[in-house]
Design a protein that fits this description.
Number of helices: 2
Radius of gyration: 15 Å
Length: 56
């Protein structure tokens, strides 16, 4: 995935969040937000681990 500007990712994330929020209850939004945060944290751990493996 390649983008010219980080701003494109911010706009894309905002649009997705708005579209999802329109269809979900507040409880569902909270659960989805927590799930996506957990996924993001796990992806960060995997990326760091891969980076460490490449440097060794």
């Amino acid at each position: 995935m390649s983008y010219n500007s980080g701003a494109h990712l911010v706009v894309l994330a905002s649009i997705i969040a708005i579209l999802l929020a329109e269809k979900l209850s507040t409880d569902d939004i909270e659960i989805l937000a927590a799930l996506l945060t957990a996924i993001g944290d796990n992806l960060a751990v995997i990326a760091v681990k891969r980076g460490l493996e490449k440097s060794n």
